[in-house]
Amino acid sequence: MRAVLDIGGTHVTAALVDPARARVTRRVRRPLDARGTAEQVLGAVVRCATDLDAPPGGTWGVAVPGPFDYDKGVARFEGVGKFADLYGIDVGSVLLDGVWPRPTGVAFLNDAHAFALGEQRAGAARGHRRWIGVTLGTGVGSAFLADGEPRGHGPGVPPQGRLDLVTVDGRPLEEVVSRRAVLARYGAPGVDVRDVAARARAGEARAYRILDEALTALGRVLAPRVRDFGATALVVGGGLTGSWDLVGPALRAGLRDTPVRLRVGALGEDAGLVGAAVHAER
After folding, report:
1. Is residue 156 domain-shared with residue 219, that is, in the same domain?
2. Are both 107 and 194 inside the same structural domain?
3. Judging by DSSP bridges, how do beta strands 11-18 and 2-7 pair with one another?
4. What would you report as the CA-atom Rg of the chain, rounded to the nearest whole angstrom?
5. What is the pLDDT of residue 7?
6. What is the pLDDT of residue 72?
7. Cβ(139)–Cβ(174) under 8 Å?
């Protein structure tokens, strides 16, 4: 059994996971304000982990978005609209000192890689040797996997394996397709992406157009990378997949005739938790 954390832009989840069975046996979820102070953000994370009441000792797997120094456990968030106050903080030391019962180690990994490892272990990517995982939420996460390992370079792979570093029509990808991009373009206070999706289903042309154009653009960005990487599957996770009836067709339209199996993640929010446990197990 492994204790894990999945730190996202709107919430943090602590869980106990059986990586062999890809099964979450206990979880605690708490809201998180990615624009809060370091004390607020890390305080919420430590409280969530402590509330899990995990067995003492052991290495925790921790999934966290980038930019982040995963080997050293140091936050490098800058210019990405989230966790800015954490820049330069040794998050690993904070967790080792603050979580109770005390862990003996912390193994960090990118949240999109955690999603991918989870889907590889027991989800939509089982049986695929070369495939791409994409997470759509507060930002855009990605993982290019070959034989079960994320790749940071090679044909079709963006710099560091990060789609968020790619531009589309001269703009950073995350300014075109992400939760914050959709909401900024829709421009209605108090409205979330699920509300935009609901209005699109109800026939609001503007809501439909905003979602359709964003996801079609993502498909256009991915199409040549899918071909060059030789991916046989493209698996999508994250909060925006809750509107897969709108996301899937638009993404497929952008991919056009690219020969790849497009699938929504099978494990839902458990994918990142299972992937973090697999990483800690290794």
Report:
1. yes
2. no
3. antiparallel
4. 18
5. 96
6. 97
7. yes
Phi-psi region of 170 (alpha: psi -120 to 50; beta: other; left: phi over 0): left
The domain that holds 133 is classified in CATH as 3.30.420.40
Say how far apart CA 178 and CA 193 lie, in whole Å: 10
Question: Is the pLDDT at 180 greater than 90, yes or no?
Answer: no
| Length of the chain (residues) | 282
pLDDT of residue 139: 84
Q: How far apart are CA 51 and CA 231, in angstroms?
A: 40
What does pTM read for this prediction? 0.92
Residue ranges making up the domain that contains 218:
127-264
- Classify residue 16: in a domain, yes or no: yes
Percentage with pLDDT > 90 across the chain: 91
DSSP, residue by residue, 125-139: TTT-SEEEEEEESSS
Using alpha carbons only, give the angle 106, 133, 149 rounded to the nearest 5 degrees: 55
Cβ-in-10-Å burial (0-12, 13-18, 19+) of 81 comes to middle
Within-domain flag for 162: yes
User: Over 52-121, what HEC string results?
Assistant: CCCCCCCEEEEEECCCEECCCCEECCCCCCCCHHHCCCEHHHHHHHHCCCCCCEEEEEEHHHHHHHHHHH
Residues 274 and 255 in one domain: no
Is residue 248 domain-shared with residue 132, that is, in the same domain?
Answer: yes
Residues 255 and 140 both lie in one domain: yes
What are the φ/ψ torsions at residue 27 (nearest 5 degrees)? Answer: -150, 150
At residue 113, what is the residue type?
H
Residue-wise pLDDT tens digits, 156-177:
999 999 999 999 989 999 999 9
The answer as to whether 120 is a domain residue is no
Tell me, yes or no, whether 253 lies in a domain.
Answer: yes
Same domain assignment for residues 60 and 139: no
